[in-house]
From TrEMBL:
Signal peptide: none annotated. GO terms for molecular function: aminoacyl-tRNA deacylase activity; ATP binding; isoleucine-tRNA ligase activity; tRNA binding; zinc ion binding. It catalyses: tRNA(Ile) + L-isoleucine + ATP = L-isoleucyl-tRNA(Ile) + AMP + diphosphate. Keywords: Aminoacyl-tRNA synthetase, ATP-binding, Cytoplasm, Ligase, Metal-binding, Nucleotide-binding, Protein biosynthesis, Zinc. InterPro entries: aa-tRNA-synth_I_CS, aa-tRNA-synth_Ia, Anticodon_Ile_BEm, Ile-tRNA-ligase, Ile-tRNA-ligase_type1, Ile-tRNA_ligase, M/V/L/I-tRNA-synth_anticd-bd, Rossmann-like_a/b/a_fold. It is found in: Cytoplasm. It comes from Spiroplasma alleghenense. A motif ('KMSKS' region) lies at residues 595-599. Residues 28-633 form the Aminoacyl-tRNA synthetase class Ia domain. Monomer. Catalyzes the attachment of isoleucine to tRNA(Ile). As IleRS can inadvertently accommodate and process structurally similar amino acids such as valine, to avoid such errors it has two additional distinct tRNA(Ile)-dependent editing activities. One activity is designated as 'pretransfer' editing and involves the hydrolysis of activated Val-AMP. The other activity is designated 'posttransfer' editing and involves deacylation of mischarged Val-tRNA(Ile). L-isoleucyl-5'-AMP binds at E554. This is Isoleucine--tRNA ligase.
Amino acid sequence: MANYKDTLLIQNTDFEMRAGLKDKEPKIQEKWEKLNIYNKKIKLNDKKPLFILHDGPPYANGDIHVGHALNKSLKDFIVRWKNSNGYKSPYIMGWDTHGLPIETAIAKTGVDRKKVSPEVFRDLCRNYAIEQIENQKKGFKRLGIFTDDKVIYRTLDPSFEISQLKLFAKLVEKKLVYKDLKPIFWSPSSETALAEAEIEYQDVKSPSMYIAAKVVKTSAWKNLPQDHFIIWTTTPWTIPANQLIAAGSEIEYVLVSVKGDERRFVIAKSLLPIVGETIGWEEPKIIATFLGSELENSTYQHPLYEKQISKVVLGEHVTSDSGTGLVHTAGGFGEDDYQLVKREKMQAFAPIDNSGHFDKTIEDKDLIGVFYDDANKIVGGKLTENKNLLKMKWITHSYPHDWRTKKPVIWRATAQWFVGLEKAIPQIVTHIDKIKTKPEWSQNRLKSLIEGRKEWTISRQRLWGVPIIGFYDKNDKLVLNSEVVNFAIDILAKEGTNVWFTKPADYFLPESYRNQNHTKETDILDVWFDSGCSNIALQERFPEFKRPYDVYLEGNDQYRGWFNSSLINSVIWDNQAPYKQLITHGMTNDEKGKKMSKSIGNTIDPISIANEMGSDILRLWVASTDYTDDQKIGTEILKQVGESYRKIRNTVRFILSNLVDFDPEKNYQKKLNPVDEFSLHNLTIFKQKITQAYESYQFNLVYQLLNNYVNNELSAFYLDFIKDILYIEKQDDLRRRQVQTVLYEQLWVLIDSIRPILVHTTEEIYDNIKFIKKEESVHLLDLRKQDFSIKSEQVNNWNKFLIFRDEINKALELARNEKIIKKSFEAKLEIEISSEFEEMVKISDLEQILIVSQIEFKKVADPIYSGKIGKVCVQIREGSKCERCWGIFAKLATEDLCERCHKVISD
């Protein structure tokens, strides 16, 4: 018996089944770089409308992590889609380069910033930041990001720094910037002030103390020497700095006596039961009752220093919800405390230095030089000794921490620079109402964060950053006006900001201010002020980029960070929002949903994934996620994504293999079979849905649509039955060319659908298409226009056919289970068709589409299956098997060939 395998048109393509992405991707990236593909595409799009996705700057420190990969891939999907779909969308990557982490990195090399000149230290920081940027660039390149990594923005660039200082000058001009002594978040571990955006909360154990303060004089009752106010605190180290006790004017207070203690105590009446139980009082007895307003101007002895007499004042912030209803007030260590002390025309007392140690102003030798947290024990000991500590117990509560060092922060009154926001907030909020957000609820989040801000601390006590331009006269009075600020900016624009730290004040002052013993400000601007200026700096550098930019896309932690500072700066600059739309993604966790941590050992390195599996797999993982929520990633998840990739790749490989001999110029068929038209109609619907998903940034929907189309529409239907046509018919057979025409269009829709995501794979696919005039890269192409819609009546009929086909497949499966047939092509179907599905009788090539040998429409007495379509009987087809096509026929044309195969071979 002859072997007819060589007569079949089973063709091969150089597009391999095994992806080998880890080896191919770097070569493809080298090709893009060598041919300058990004800039060529931007130039091709030159006359198209601009679409600007403004890149939020990652910090220039360390290797890129999987969060960077998520962020940059999402941005890349958008930029690539827009550039292929009617827009010019340049992507300028940015980096945040100033601040503490880089200073810390330099310190770890053994450099003490206090022992080298400012210029030397700043140059070391600058060089380190540039090295880190180059390192991160390599990481982003390995991910296949569509950009020119030589055209970037860095907050350390002189032009950027000057744009930033121009904004500072605008704040001065609008009288929105000022310097004041206020309690702010202070990080002893970083030795600098922090903004609210740099604070995160963690549960900690703290000593909770109930403390007695002896009453000296009051008009609320006839006081005796044994009378005491009770205050409560979870920060005993602030007790040495106590300046006042605050009472609530409408709160009812009581004087109580306690069994076993000669002293009498004052607390809020409503808190007596819980305080009494906590301290362990027996039979507390109320002696007198009075309102808080009656306590005003009462005096008391300091709990530690009996010679220090202070008074009771009224405070609106005082409640009787917790504590004792009498609030320990240390003006240097709390916002409400500070306001009360200021109201009383007192100087806030904050005897803690930058590193968190008590300084000499405390005048207590036991505390000088002691770290604030260690002072709790000393204070507790002193209070125990003088019998003013009534009770101490440990409590667990939420406490602010430095988000970089992860160590506790304190409220500390220091002289800082602020931007006053109260006047600007209403104007800023009107812009928020016009901004689209994804997810939608996040608009309210941004609004609440903005509305809650009264001022912004913009100064930092560091060296590596943009200097705050300010001067002080010989009496230490601040000299700040537009004239001196703009004069200094002009000098810094010519000579660079380093010169601020090396030249005397007179060098930067107009002539009329010189020789008057002025000094310069030493603080630098907050890094959030730096990055918050990026939208302004970018427009000054690229005047064609018009704000508001189309999209900002960052992690959901940026509502209190970059989104916030960008909006404030932009609106203050020229009453313009920086963005039209905000998109946020969640954080990346391990497969179990746990936060990634080097100490736990559950981190995922994106470059390792790229070098082992390919960055296209990592990008496909990004597309598979609902990025608006937190994401899980790990080996098993990536394997699942890899399986989806394999199915896409194998489908494309099948199509490419069967287009090896297809020249669109010569072989493309405009007149098609009805089933081909239906397949192209479905292709059109698929492309419309894919387009909609990309336009709405629903990349997980793109992933779902793609998998469904490849697995169901193509592999399980059209590609399944056309193998008989592609392999068996003559090469130039009309039906074969019709099917190839459909495959050709399907290939292009797959290319357009995966191009923003599987960027390397798409390039490989494009390289393997035959008979077309090609550009240097698939990424230079625009989306192919494809619309093959057919009439709704035809669509309805074919949708009915799909139901018909599903039920036939159920009947065939039953027949296989009952050993009637082994393969569907052996089957003869007898169908008693229902009236609803009578149109199926008219479909040509029905046996071929259903992959069976024979169909008869007739009455069925003994069906194997009954359903909507009617009754179905499955039998083995009686006859002889063609050794070429494997069909079963009543009669063969030759000993082992059917008539069709005999004719093909003969021709």
